[in-house]
Automatic annotation (TrEMBL):
One of its GO terms (biological process) is protein ubiquitination. SMART domains: ARM, Ubox. Keywords: Repeat, Transferase, Ubl conjugation pathway. One of its GO terms (molecular function) is ubiquitin protein ligase activity. InterPro entries: ARM-like, ARM-type_fold, ARM_PUB, Armadillo, PUB12-19-like_N, RING-Ubox_PUB, Ubox_domain, Znf_RING/FYVE/PHD. This is RING-type E3 ubiquitin transferase. Pathway: Protein modification; protein ubiquitination. It catalyses: S-ubiquitinyl-[E2 ubiquitin-conjugating enzyme]-L-cysteine + [acceptor protein]-L-lysine = [E2 ubiquitin-conjugating enzyme]-L-cysteine + N(6)-ubiquitinyl-[acceptor protein]-L-lysine. ARM repeats lie at residues 419-461, 544-586. Residues 274-348 form the U-box domain.
């Protein structure tokens, strides 16, 4: 009954006891299993399938009495046939335990309801398995009381005759859900009374409960997409749409404190004892940003273990055991520890592009007609609340928009189509930090979609976004606004218009100079994008970007250093940029970065920057580089060991240095005649 989180819902991986198991060990395990199941008799734990669940728990309780008496009185004289029957009971009770866990799993109630046929079928099978095992149990050879034997016979008879059927309440809830889904297909808003009836039946009492359901359904949805089980996708997509609509429309407020508690907790204490080695993938020896567990129980980073399996290796790399399944189950506990460790040590981790992190490129189209209808109706509702609602309604609406747009392209497209962008820009001027922060976060998500970029630009949003970078009420809002400019700068027309705004580049440079890590990062990539337009080069230089970038070459964060070098490289492409870089005394620092860098891309940017400086700066730069022994050694190393591009550019710099040295020290030809060259033998 352990490791319940390492399996898919309604997969029941029970294991038969080994043939050589001793009767006392088997009985001890049976008693322990029964006690675990009986501990699940918690009032209100099972909103649905109560009749089947209560019957299963009742039978397990009676079996527990029988097992305890056998253990106390007669296990030493158990015949082999009795041990076989007890092993069958052990197998069936394990499966009942899994079933009960799944039926009580928080967040999975709608899925369990709509899979009632499968759930009830499993209960019938396991209860009949108990009946079969009890029928062949040789009671006459087991030394227990007559009352216990009668109990077993009665239980066997009841297990054969009990009816496990769908209750009327469950049936009504199922029919209501199907009716609502049909309304979604037609683009009709369902009656909220019907929705509330279903939620009450499932004991979904607040926004957070609803969000738990939605998170579970999305995980199942992307799991099936990843595994190629496309037949399940429309079904799961429709349930996702149903629950999303309920979360948006039914609940008027978000338990924001509870939402915050979902983030990694006790950052200051829970990882004090943690060694980073324990969070490294045994294969890649890197932090497991997307940890998954294989059938052996070992945890690896998803990308590494997938490559291992695809290469034909079907053994566990650590234990050497054969993998009974190639299924990869996300290890959320390890993921949470990695997040806490990275947050504590100020390490960035990328969102893993996996099924459980909502792979964005798989969300361009809706998963089914009902899902599309539900999302469009929900988005329309949110835009209405944002445009006409009071402060609390706007707070709720804008938070929902942020969650909707976070990693789903279809959701983003729906928000743009519903004219959410003008209203999001409108509320940027709000004095409520929560509204402003979430509005710019939604705009950031929408700026990742082509239609969102167009809507922001056409709605006159450029100036408003720059104002947020400069005057935003929260640091996060400023950082996200800079990121919006980065995505908009990917379109030539937009980056030209951004450059025309007098405050745009200076504001980004100021954020680069004084911002926190994320602010510096977003400002850097935005400036890098703007430099793709030649007319923006003089604006970046005049805004004082070069001294700031040069100072960042000593930053402790290597990614900031490499970003700074990349921007300087772009600036150095033009002669006026090279002149300003030389004036800032950047060459020595760039060389230091090149020599100390362990990043191939970082070295490539450095050597490319130095080559531009040599070409545009002439002998002054070349002679300075030639007097740096550490640089010369590094250039030779790049020629022999670096990437093709880095090696080629390093060779070009070496040629320039050698040509310069030859010009400074011309070869003196002595007037020696051929006949003077005599070798005298000693």
């Amino acid at each position: 009954m352990t490791h319940l989180t390492k399996r898919k819902i309604l997969s029941l991986p029970a294991v038969y006891p080994c043939e050589a198991i001793s009767p006392d060990t088997l009985l001890s395990s049976l008693i322990s299993l029964c006690h675990e199941i009986l501990a699940k008799r918690v009032p209100g734990m099972y909103p649905i399938h109560r009749q089947a669940i209560l019957e299963a728990i009742r039978e397990v309780g009676l079996l527990s009495i029988f097992f305890e008496e056998v253990y106390e009185c007669g296990f030493r004289r158990l015949p082999e046939s009795a041990v076989v029957c007890l092993s069958e009971l052990h197998f069936a009770i394990q499966k009942i335990g899994f079933l009960l866990h799944d039926c009580g799993q928080k967040g999975a109630q709608l899925w369990i309801l709509m899979r009632s046929d499968l759930v009830l079928s499993e209960f019938r099978v396991q209860i009949r398995s108990i009946a079969t095992a009890l029928d062949v149990l040789p009671l006459e050879f087991i030394d227990i009381s007559q009352e216990a034997k009668e109990l077993v016979r009665l239980l066997s008879m009841q297990a054969w005759t009990v009816e496990i059927e769908l209750s009327k309440c469950d049936d009504l809830a199922i029919r209501t859900v199907r009716s609502v889904l049909n309304q979604f297909k037609r683009g009709v808003n369902p009656d909220t009374v019907d929705l509330q009836r279903v939620l009450d039946h499932l004991q979904i009492q607040n926004w957070s409960d609803c969000d738990d359901e939605l998170s579970f359904l999305e995980q199942e949805l992307f799991s099936n997409i990843e595994d190629g089980h496309n037949n399940e996708v429309p079904f799961l997509g429709s349930l996702t749409g149903f629950m999303l609509y309920c979360r948006v429309v039914i609940f008027n407020s978000v338990e924001f404190k509870r939402v915050e508690r979902k983030e990694p907790m006790t950052r200051a204490t829970s990882i004090d004892w943690l060694s980073p080695d324990g969070l490294q993938c045994p294969i890649s020896l890197e932090l497991m940003t997307d940890p998954v567990t294989v059938s052996s129980g070992q945890t690896y980073d998803r990308a590494s273990i997938k490559r291992w399996i695809k290469s034909g290796c079907l053994t566990c790399p650590v234990t050497g055991k054969m993998l009974t399944s190639t299924e990869l189950l996300p290890n959320l506990s390890v993921r949470r520890l990695v997040e806490q460790y990275c947050h504590r040590n100020d390490i960035l981790i990328a969102e893993p592009s996996t099924k459980h992190r909502r792979t964005v490129d798989k969300t361009d189209i809706p998963f089914c007609v009902a899902s599309a209808g539900a999302i469009r109706l929900a988005v329309s509702f949110l835009v209405c609340k944002l445009s006409k609602g009071g402060t609390q309604e706007r707070r709720k609406a804008i938070y929902e928009m942020r969650k909707l747009s976070k990693s789903n392209n279809f959701h983003r497209a729906c928000l743009v189509e519903a004219d959410a962008v003008p209203w999001l820009l409108y509320v940027l001027s709000s004095s409520d930090p929560f509204i402003q922060d979430n509005a710019i976060a939604v705009l950031l998500n929408l700026s990742k979609h082509p239609s969102g970029q167009k809507a922001i630009f056409q709605s006159g949003g450029l100036g408003l976004i720059i104002d947020i970078i400069k005057y935003g009420l929260k640091v996060e809002a400023k950082q996200n606004a800079a990121a919006v400019l980065f995505y908009l700068s990917s379109v030539e027309e937009y980056r030209v218009e951004i450059g025309k705004i007098s405050e745009a580049v200076p504001t980004l440079v100021e954020l680069l100079r004084n911002g926190m890590y994320r602010g510096k990062k977003n400002a850097a990539v935005s400036l890098f994008g703007l430099l793709d337009s030649p007319e923006n080069h003089p604006k970046v230089i005049s805004a004082g970007a070069i001294p700031v970038l040069v100072s960042l070459l000593k930053c402790e964060r290597s990614d900031i250093v490499y970003d700074s070098v990349a921007i300087l490289e772009k600036i150095a492409e033009r002669p006026e940029g090279t002149i300003e870089i030389i004036r800032s005394a950047a060459i020595a620092r760039v060389v230091d970065v090149l020599v100390s860098s362990t990043s191939r891309s970082g070295k490539e940017h450095c050597v490319s920057l130095l080559l531009f400086l040599c070409k545009n700066g002439g002998d002054t730069v070349v002679s300075q580089l030639g007097r740096m022994p550490a640089l010369m050694a590094e250039l030779y190393r790049l020629v022999t060991e670096g990437t093709a591009d880095a090696g080629k550019k390093a060779r070009s710099i070496l040629d320039l240095i050698h040509n310069h040295n030859e010009a400074d020290y011309p070869v003196v030809v002595l007037p020696i005649q051929i006949h003077d060259r005599v070798i005298h033998a000693l």
